[in-house]
Amino acid sequence: MNSPLNQNTVDKRLDQLLEKITELKEEESIAELQHLLHQGVDPRELLACCMGGMRRIGNLFEEGRYFISALIMAGEIMRSATELLSPHLTPEPVSGGGGRVLLGTIKGDIHDLGKNLFALLLQSHGFEIIDLGVDVSAEIFFENAKQQQPDIIAISCVLTSGIDNLQQAINHLKENLPHPRPGVIVGGACLDQRVADYVGTRQWAKDAAIGLKICQQIMREAEGNQA
Ligand code: B12
Questions:
Q1: With b meaning 16 or more CB within 10 Å and e meaning fewer, what string describes 33-59?
Q2: How far is the CA of 220 from the centre of ligand 1 (A)?
Q3: What are the strands, taking DSSP E only, across the chain?
Q4: CB of 51 closer than 6 A to ligand 1?
Q5: Residues carrying CATH 3.40.50.280, the chain
Q6: Which fold has domain 100-226?
Q7: 55: which DSSP letter?
Q8: Confidence (pLDDT) at 95
Q9: Torsion angles phi and psi, residue 138, rounded to 5
Q10: What DSSP designation does 183 have?
Q11: Phi, psi of 154, deg, nearest 5
Q12: Does the Cβ of 52 fall within 6 Å of ligand 1?
């Protein structure tokens, strides 16, 4: 659906939405999101605006102007926004055709909103998700990988303080899983090339859409090896 609002109006409304989110006005933010969605504004633009709000709240927290209660409220806003936007962001879940993905957030980290968005995107492209939740240790990833035999293990890491646990989990999986080993992909806000090198993985993404492409590539390579 094309938006009846012109781009200038949309940009202005998105700026206002960003302000509302940053000020932690949950009800107003969700009402505005609903309104803009009905006006035909691209849900990806709306999601990007919410994530921008999260970054601003995070920065205010770092500067000591917001406290932990603000992060909790931010999480609630992001959860409601994701619930509202999800059906509009991805096609209907497709069953089969992708691969099996064992997914979890690394030990010490309880952020799950990004992980859940990534799971949703994968499901809508035919992947089956086995979600281990948050605060998942190397041993739990390993035990589940042994039992469930996934094609891919995907680990979310948002906190910088989770990086050592991430490295430990990747080493544990590399050392103990028998060949052919599932592909491992890591993702989340704290990932960059330096972190990926440090934890010992080639496959990483800061963004769920790039993560999906990498998972599809891993599946193509695995099929190529079987042929
Ligand atoms: C909401 C929030 C919380 C909520 C989380 C609620 C929840 N259920 O997830 C709560 C209140 C629990 C929380 C707690 C804390 N938080 Co917090 N939190 C945030 C905040 C504001 C938003 C996070 C969010 O949901 N973003 C939206 C999602 C959709 O984005 P995302 O996670 O980046 O995910 C995207 C990608 O990264 C990717 N992705 C994610 N996972 C994966 C996995 C794979 C495999 C792939 C491919 C892709 C992928 O896909 C998503 C879409 O593209 C951020 C600020 C920010 N800049 O993001 C701080 C932030 C992450 N938190 C921070 C901190 C410090 C904390 C605390 C330590 C605070 C404290 N003193 O207690 C605790 C830690 C608790 C713990 N042990 O985990 C810091 C982290 C700094 C750092 N570099 O380590 C941030 C950056 C704030 C800041 N600027 O200081 N937090």
A1: beebbeeebbbeebbebbbbbbebbee
A2: 31
A3: 100-105, 128-131, 152-156, 183-187, 204-205
A4: yes
A5: 100-226
A6: Rossmann fold (3.40.50)
A7: H
A8: 67
A9: -55, -40
A10: E
A11: -115, 125
A12: no
CATH no. for 7-89? 1.10.1240.10
Between CA 193 and CA 173 the distance in angstroms is: 20
Among candidate residues 192, 216, 190, 212, the one with its CA nearest the CA of residue 106: 190
- Mean pLDDT per 10-residue interval, the chain, length 227 residues: 78 97 98 96 96 98 98 98 93 76 98 97 94 98 97 98 98 94 95 96 94 95 77
pLDDT at position 5: 82
Determine the pLDDT at residue 91.
72
Residue corresponding to tokens 């080639």: 202
Delimit the CATH 1.10.1240.10 region(s) of the chain.
7-89
- Predicted model pTM: 0.95
Q: Ligand 1 centre from 179 Cα, in Å? A: 33
Instruction: Determine the residue of 44, 60, 76, 111 to mutate for testing ligand 1's pocket, defined as the one with the most ligand atoms within 8 A of the Cβ atom.
Output: 111
Q: Which of 192, 225, 220 is nearest to 206 (CA)?
A: 192
